[in-house]
Amino acid sequence: MSNLKVVKELKFWVLAIAAALITLHLHLTWRSDNTELLSTSFLFWLAVSSLLWKKRDTLNLESGVFSSFFGASLIILVLIKSLHLSNSVSFLRISPFISLLGLCLLASGLKGLRQYWQELLLLAFLAIAQGWILLIGDISIFTAKFAAFVLWILGFEVSLQGVFIILPKGSIEVYSGCSGIGLILQLLGLAFIILVMVPTNLTKKILLPFVAVVLGFAVNGVRVALMAVLVALSHQQAFEYWHTGDGSLIFSTSAVLIFGLFCHFMVLKTVKLQS
User: Fold this and answer.
1) From CA 145, how far away is CA 53, in angstroms rounded?
2) Signal sequence: where (predicted)?
3) pLDDT at residue 264 in the model
């Protein structure tokens, strides 16, 4: 069998395994009912697939016995864990990185990992779980302060006690899950994808993550302020809609669209003009 035929067969099997792993991960994420993670995972897999497709003809596909065994073991580990998954968000975030690392070792060995540094870096970012950031610090108090400030600007009689936003006819408590970390991570992920895939200067490398954090925090703060008003008005059904229903998706989708437009005009359009 010629070397060319072996390489073609290896490419086919690696592609088939990759497609199966991506499908499995997206399916499990969809079953977890974590919409933010599902949309973020889809974007990251799309970016990784695009990067790999561009360099498909220049990849060195040579792997040793140890590297192939280790890579296959990582993939098997992901598959076994997936069979016994019980809504583990941490696993859903880290499994894409483990899967890609296993595929890279299987296809190119330890020496060939440098070819995939961009893709591995992207999925390493995805592995940053929301809970890990909460261990560093909870921003709920800042979210509560911002939401109270928004209500005060709009003319509401509002007071603040810790993470409790108090209006004359009702109050809400801002939990860590409503602090905006999820939305901030989602926008940071989008910024990270652009920074990896598009050549940018130092100013934009600093500006994009900064805007992602500020926008995610502000949009979520407005959402919290709205929920406080709904509680004060005793609109429980409307509160549930904006809290856990489709209304929460409207805010996150709006934030992604606004940030996408910002990236288009500030980064992507600039790159096109320069080229």
Assistant:
1) 46
2) none
3) 82
Angle value at C-alpha 69, between 64 and 24, nearest 5 degrees: 120
Helix (H, G, I), strand (E, B) or coil at 167: strand
Same domain, 82 and 18: yes
**What average pLDDT does the structure give for the chain?**
84
DSSP 3-state helix, strand, coil percentages of the chain (rounded to 5)? 80, 5, 20
The residue with tokens 């709006």 is 254
Indicate whether 271 pLDDT > 70.
no
For the chain, what's the residue count? 275
Burial 158-178 (b: 16+ CB within 10 A, else e): bebeebebbbeebbbebebeb
Per-residue pLDDT reduced to its tens digit, 22-45: 999 999 988 888 777 888 899 999
Examine the domain organization and report whether 68 and 116 are in the same domain.
yes
First to last CA, the chain: 44
pTM for the model: 0.83
Closest CA to 105 of 74, 135, 80: 74
Asked whether residue 148 falls in the same domain as residue 268, the answer is: yes
Q: Specify whether the CB–CB gap between 39 and 24 falls below 8 A.
A: no
Query: CA-to-CA distance for 223 and 80, rounded, in angstroms?
Result: 39
